Model the fold of this input.
Amino acid sequence: MKTVFLHGMGQTAHDWDAVLSQASLPDVDCPELSALPEGKLTYTGLRTGFEKRYTNVKEAFSDMGVSKRDMIRLCHSMRSLNFTARLREVRCPVKILCGEKDRANLKASRQLSELLPQAELHIIPGAGHEINKCAPETIADILNS
Done:
């Protein structure tokens, strides 16, 4: 099974390097999100990029920077998304990891774990929003277990 790591806004795929170097996972991918869409960086563009990437249609992308304007456009394109009704359709294993000091995502992480019956919720003690940077060993331990 492929394990996919997604970096946050303001990060790059390389921000997961410390975790990936310690995790014993056989099939890992950590795409550079800014390189996935064809055209403007929006949720729809990302979704299409993921569909192409993971249906074995591979494309070579050069390193691309993301402008503040593109990042704002991406955020705006995702404002009204609500996948709650379809979460029960998810069948693959899910691990939800969140820092205990991540005020932006802690509540949503708990709610998501309730909506995904097969999910395991891991609250990382002492960690903030960027757990991949402040607790890579802990993340790798969870993923290796």
Q: What stands out?
A: Residues 99 and 127 are 4 Å apart (CA to CA). The first strand starts at residue 3 and ends at 4. The chain has a mean pLDDT of 85.
